[in-house]
Design goal:
By secondary structure, the chain is α/β, with parallel strands linked by helices. The chain contains 9 helices and 7 strands; from the N terminus they run ααβαβαββαβααβααβ. It has a single domain, classed as Rossmann fold.
């Protein structure tokens, strides 16, 4: 399969950077996951890995009283988040920086909570779990979402899409095993409801694609790319029972005395 060219990524980011978030999730799910982190300090130190434009970062700023470092490798997304932070008067608590999730350049054993929605897989789940374990304080929490299979024999279009984006995607038991193998204790997990795919992600995506169809009405290449991007929410409508996003909350064990 050919790798997408520069024009694809140009149009891709023109769609995705305008969205409230770049993957499934919503504030209700963030509240539920935070509720599983029952022993967070009053002012937790939080790291948001793979933050994108920061939809969930801003949720966390509203739901906690802690300080947040948000990291993503895509500079335009970080610039947009920095603008949002400034506009909301959060610069004293929230810092957005360009960085590599695999090498975040943050102090070891320093975070009470690491948060990552739909991003850890990009550096390999087990590697991401190892990185997170080192950065968390003993007793610190890791809250993340990850795509998993729910049914055997997915339709070819679904299988091809995940094979391209997440070829090592597994099942719920695979993720649970990886979490435990990397030294975490499972606190809890739950499946994202379908509205978490639509409210702040696929519905805004479809609206954005429609806007850009007007802009690129006379651009054949751009129109074909928009057609390609529009397939994802359409396939989700038909085949969402084959896969899911699971929200996991795990904990680095307290140091034994």
């Amino acid at each position: 399969m050919n790798e997408p060219g520069p024009r694809f990524w140009e149009i891709f980011f023109e769609v995705y950077e305008d969205l409230p978030r770049q993957g499934p999730g919503n504030q209700a799910c963030a509240v539920r996951a935070l509720g599983l982190c029952r022993e967070l300090p009053e002012y937790p130190a939080i790291l948001d890995l793979g933050c994108g434009v920061g939809g969930q970062t801003l949720y966390l700023a509203g739901l906690t009283s802690g300080s947040i470092v948000a990291i993503d490798n895509h500079a335009p997304s970080i610039k947009r988040l920095q603008e949002s932070i400034a506009a909301l008067g959060l610069s004293g608590r929230v810092r957005a920086i360009v960085g590599d999730m695999a090498h975040p350049e943050q102090p070891l054993d320093s975070f009470d909570l690491i948060w990552s929605e739909g991003a850890l897989y990009s550096i390999g789940l087990r590697n991401a779990l190892c990185v997170s374990h080192r950065l968390l304080c003993p007793g610190g929490y890791l809250a993340f979402t990850d795509a998993i299979w729910r049914k055997e024999n997915p339709p070819p279009a679904i299988k091809a899409g995940f094979d391209m984006d997440y070829p090592t995607m597994g099942w719920l038991d695979d993720d649970v095993a990886a979490i435990e193998d990397e030294g975490f204790e499972i606190v809890g997990h739950f499946t994202l409801p379908d509205e978490a795919w639509w409210d702040d992600f696929y519905t805004p995506m479809e609206n954005r694609i429609m806007e850009l169809r007007g802009k690129y009405a006379n651009d054949v290449q751009a129109s074909k790319i928009l057609d390609q991007l529009a397939k994802e929410p359409g396939l989700h409508r038909r085949y969402s029972d084959y896969y899911a996003y699971e929200f996991f909350v795990a904990r680095r064990p307290l140091a034994r005395t």
